[in-house]
Design a protein that fits this description.
Blueprint: E1 5-11, H1 15-25, E2 28-35, H2 60-69, H3 73-79, E3 83-86, E4 90-94, E5 97-98, E6 107-110, H4 113-125, E7 130-134, E8 136-143, E9 150-157, E10 164-168, E11 171-174, H5 182-188, E12 196-211, E13 222-225, E14 233-240, E15 244-251, H6 261-269, H7 275-280, E16 285-300, E17 312-314, E18 320-321, H8 329-347, H9 352-359, H10 361-376, H11 387-403, H12 407-417, H13 429-444
Parallel strand pairs: 1-2, 1-11, 2-7, 4-13, 11-17
Antiparallel strand pairs: 3-6, 4-5, 8-9, 9-10, 12-15, 12-16, 13-14, 14-15, 16-18
Helix pairs in contact: 1-4, 1-8, 2-8, 8-9, 11-12, 11-13
The structure holds flavin-adenine dinucleotide (FAD).
């Protein structure tokens, strides 16, 4: 492939930074991947990615695209100990019941974030021309005299004596995550910073690891208990490497799942579905609990700014960070990386930032709509609820109960939340007919008509739990 330039620099070696290095390595002589953390050789959590201690899975659309980007990565993940979990083994409790996924065949990862990132990082390090520069923080962008083009980045070592150096580059990608300095950098260079959209949800996560008994839950390896509208509590569990479960308790709107084991167990037991209690109550904990807060969704509208400097792109959580309940952040970053490769092939480096942002907008928008749409179903979340949202929400309230007994409808839903298909797939006549007929049949057979998800088991009516 003809080279588009001598040197590309990616700031941030999280998932977004790693996957963006792939299309760049094929099109530039050299790629430098900069991270302020000293990156571990082993599969370890690290300071720069505190969210990595909580459940992290690649949804089907993310895993499939990652395999396209890095052929053989699924085998590499499995060889490193990751589970590859097929959909009949998932236990997704949403809309007041369990989705019927029998006969479907979707795949997700069952691994810690540290393992996923470590395996992907090993593949990136092995690419021709890629250098990983860890322990260096990006401090500011450098430009040409007219400030119309980014020409590189100034770095400072995180290790005493804190040397400084400048990397010249033909393209700079900012993948430094949610706290990205790009809005400040751009303002400092005289560019209008992007507008920021926010949705406050005040979500808290508490996570613990447990020894996994493969007999529990009939061998099921992935559980999701969604937060019903009007409620605050949910949870997810995933089988991960080394015979463990990672269990993340979710509290919305200021609800804080406890970290101590007794409180953690009580919380799991209080959920409207009993699967989590099966894992946690009497389970063998490993290590301490980790906590994280997700105060609000944040989307920086780089796709709408009037002007961006040339040779510059922003990616991953630095553009948009979602309530991770649907696990889409890493997948959106992978879509962005794929679009970067296409944009470079179509038009070279000129205007590539704006063109990539425009091409990947659909993925950010779909993930944003799905996650904000779901959170807005909670009456206490403050935000606009336009007519389109009300229609979609009403439709999903009919769809989910049908998906509890119709695998065709359940599969369509998973294709959309798993980013294999656009949301319009849910309105395809094949799905729409089944939803309308299925919900009519249900109403005729004594359905309550109560919106899905509001029929949670009342607190006090607890599921049976495994004796400790
Ligand atoms: C609790 C929780 C659970 C989640 N679960 C999932 C899930 O199941 N599935 C999923 O797909 N997504 C999940 N996400 C989202 C996911 O973590 C991110 O979307 C994804 O990691 C992409 O982030 P990123 O690479 O853009 O940023 P990050 O992962 O935050 O990485 C940013 C990197 O930039 C480095 N950095 C920061 N500043 C500088 C600087 N100045 N100079 C150099 N380096 C710098 C950091 O050290 C870090 O390595 C979850 C998020 C949370 C909070």
């Amino acid at each position: 492939m003809p080279r588009l330039g001598e040197h590309a620099v990616v700031l941030g070696a999280g998932i977004a930074g790693l996957v963006h290095a792939v299309p760049l390595a094929r099109r530039f002589q050299r790629v430098t991947l900069v991270d302020r953390d000293l990156l571990p050789d082993r599969r370890e959590d690290r300071r720069g990615v505190p969210q990595g201690q909580h459940i992290h899975l690649l949804v089907p659309g993310g895993l499939a695209r990652l395999e396209d980007l890095l052929p053989g990565i699924v085998d590499d993940l499995a060889a490193a100990g990751a589970h590859v979990i097929r959909s009949p083994e998932w236990r997704f409790h949403m809309g007041g019941g369990r989705l019927d996924l029998t006969g479907t065949d979707f795949r997700i990862t069952g691994a810690t974030r540290a393992l996923i990132e470590g395996v992907v990082r090993d593949r990136i390090r092995a690419l021709d021309g890629v250098e990983v520069l860890d322990g260096w923080a990006a401090r500011e962008l450098t430009t040409d005299a007219a400030r119309s083009r980014i020409t590189g980045v100034r770095l400072r070592s995180e290790v005493p004596p804190h040397e400084e150096r400048t990397l010249d580059a033909d393209l700079v990608v900012d993948a430094t995550g949610r706290g990205s300095p790009s809005p400040r950098w751009l303002a400092g260079l005289g560019y209008p910073p992007p507008a920021e959209e926010r949705l406050k949800v005040d979500v808290h996560y508490t996570t613990r690891l447990f020894r996994r008994d493969p007999a529990v839950l009939g061998g099921g390896r992935n559980v999701l208990v969604d937060v019903p509208p009007g409620e605050r509590r949910g949870a997810a569990a995933l089988a991960v490497e080394d015979g463990r479960w990672i269990v993340t308790l979710i509290g919305m709107l200021g609800e804080r799942p406890p970290a101590d084991l007794a409180g953690f167990s009580d919380y799991a037991t209080s959920l409207w579905n009993g699967d989590l209690a099966e894992i946690v109550v009497g389970g063998e904990p490993i290590g301490d609990a980790a906590r994280a807060a997700f105060p609000s969704f944040s989307r920086h509208r780089y796709d709408q700014v009037q002007r961006l400097p040339e040779r510059f792109l922003v990616a991953g959580d630095a553009v948009c960070s979602f309530d991770p309940r649907f696990g889409q952040g890493m997948t959106v970053a992978i879509v962005e990386a794929v679009e970067l490769g296409r944009a470079l092939d179509a038009g070279g480096v000129d205007g590539v930032g704006a063109r990539t942002l425009a091409a990947a907008r659909w993925a950010v928008q779909d993930a944003w709509d799905l996650a904000t749409g779901s959170d807005l179903a909670h009456p206490d979340v403050e935000g606009p609820r336009p007519a389109a949202w009300r229609l979609t929400t009403a439709y999903l309230e009919r769809l989910l109960p049908v998906a509890h007994r119709d695998p065709v409808v359940a599969a369509a839903f998973i294709r959309v939340v798993g980013m294999l298909a656009r949301p319009s797939e849910l309105m395809h006549p094949r799905v729409l007919t089944r939803v309308l007929l299925g919900s009519r049949r249900r109403a005729g057979s004594g359905g309550t008509g109560v919106p899905a998800g509001t029929r949670a088991r009342p607190r006090g009516d607890r599921p049976p739990v495994r004796p400790g």
